[in-house]
Amino acid sequence: MSHGTRHGGHRARAGVLLSCLLALVSAACTGGPERTQGSGAEGPAAEGPLVVASGLDVTGSGSVRQQLIEEWNRRHAGSKDRQAKLVELPGGADQQRSQLLGALQSGSARYDVVNLDITWIPEFAEAGLISPMPVPESGAAADDALDFIRQVYATTEWEGRSYARPFNTDVGLLYYRTDLLTRVMAADRLPTATWKWDQLYSSVKTLELNPVRPDERAGWTTQLKQYEGLTVNTVEAFADARIELTDSEGRYTSNADELRKGLDTLLDRVDRGRVQPAAPASDETASLTDFVEGRAVFLRHWPYAYGALGDLMDPDAYDVNRLPGKAVLGGQNLAVTADSPRADDARALITFLTSRESERCLLDAGFAATRDSAYHREKERCWPRVAAALRPAGDTPKAASPGEDIREEQPQAERDAYIQTLGAALTGAVQRPRTPYYGAFTQVLQTQVHALLVAESPDLDEAAVKLDSALRDVFAGR
After folding, report:
1. Which one, 69, 132, 135, 167, has the greatest CB density within 10 A?
2. Inter-residue contact 124 to 29 (CB < 8 Å)
3. How far is CA 30 from CA 86, 272, 293, 434, 437, in A?
4. For 126-178, what is each residue's pLDDT tens digit?
5. C-beta atoms surrounding 19 within 10 Å
6. Rounded to the nearest 5 degrees, what angle is found at the Cα of 207, between the Cα atoms of 203 and 212?
7. Which residues contact 388 (CB under 8 A, 6 or more apart)?
8. Sign of the Cα pseudo-torsion (381, 386, 391, 395, in order)
């Protein structure tokens, strides 16, 4: 499909943000130089707690990560040296990556465990900043490793070795306004797990939506601001066009013709989907705001939005399903730093934090769990004291103050259906390029694709040739 002059408003600012509940960080990484794996046997004995460095908790759940650390500490109350401490790094993903790289390369901060975005694993491994994890060949440990969702576990690997354990994962989902859709179509025409993008375009056409200003209702919205959200949306469009940018070893495998096809698919979503005019300036918070306030009928977002929507909207006003097409994996993995003097204890802590019970706690709190067993209620339960800490105080619903709207708890059947949808979406998800040069890759992609999105008359041929040349340099380390 050719793309000529585009509808105006693409440079408009994102809509007004909601409450602090939506002050979220952007979400949803090995075989390098061998480093001595610390075990506490060499050098002076380490003092103080095991230190886990992580980004901020985006779920608004009362920090389930902190609650899991406290559960570990309770279970090791008699061992001062095995206590653990969570250090949350400020800023967005790019800032956190820079902080961690600087700290580990300089030794300026003593971290034993780092919670890394899945795209950082090859870079940190190649630089020798994290240690390979032991390979369980048989027994209970090997059986336990098989419980991780295969696609998710693959994000811990680089050059044939695993350098981490999956902590929480992420995947794109399609949220939609049932209250708006059912005004013009029957319930049996609402999104299903087998929907394609053409069906979304058809629904938007039925709704007769054609927004030109940010205050007008659009067909859908997503994260097209010049940051990692744009990379994710672009890679999803490329995956639907059957374009893989690299092979498993990070070598560039595409060309200008393929890139043009992928870029055309992305622009199709913008034009035929009648995207919110504010989308090129929207991140997770802004796009969720537009959806909640009725400025978009469909929304591509991460799983934590499901919990946020439960606090912001009537449960009958929206629903969620798999994306119509490929969805990209996000999430974080826990790795032992190469210079940790207590690597054995650090690995034991990681084993606890990624256990079946802990993963169920993460799922209950709003993260996407990394284990298959977490998606089966009859198999696993969250640690009781963690579950109690995450639950609102007391079992009795609070009384409403005069004029206060108290939302009902979501029925368990609907929650179970959502969990099954999430689990299915994860098993079919795709990865972003696996490369030690991911930081350079995503910056190049964001810059060139965003320029294309905001152009009044985009030239796809020229954009594809330019992007092809830039990506060849990036993936060659130039």
Report:
1. 167
2. yes
3. 25, 40, 43, 9, 12
4. 999 999 999 877 777 778 889 999 999 999 999 999 999 999 999 999 999 99
5. 9
6. 110
7. none
8. positive
DSSP E strand boundaries for 324-477: 329-336
Residue whose tokens read 């027994």: 139
Helix axes 438-454, 460-475, angle to 10 degrees: 170
165 vs 57: CA distance, rounded Å:
18
Closest CA to 362 of 52, 62, 24: 62
Residues in the chain: 478
Give the phi and the psi of residue 246 in degrees, each rounded to 5.
-140, 165
Structure tokens at 152: 């998710």
Q: pLDDT band at residue 90, thresholds of 50, 70 and 90? A: confident
Single-letter residue type at 364: D
- Taken in order of first residue, the domains within the chain and their CATH numbers are 50-170+330-393+405-423 (3.40.190.10), 173-326+437-475 (3.40.190.10)
* Strand, coil or helix: 344: helix
Torsion angles phi and psi, residue 451, rounded to 5 = -60, -35
Could you please report the per-residue DSSP string of 226-260? TTHHHHHHHHHHHHHTT--SB-TTS-B---HHHHH
CA atoms of 471 and 478, how far apart (whole Å): 10
Structure tokens at 404: 């206060």
Q: Identify which of 334, 318, 313, 300 has the alpha carbon closest to the alpha carbon of residue 133.
A: 334
For the stretch 403-448, pLDDT in tens is 444 345 567 888 889 999 999 999 999 999 999 999 999 999 999 9
The two structure tokens encoding residue 31:
């075989």
CA-to-CA separations, 377 to 157, 227, 291, 368, 380, in angstroms, rounded: 29, 36, 30, 14, 6
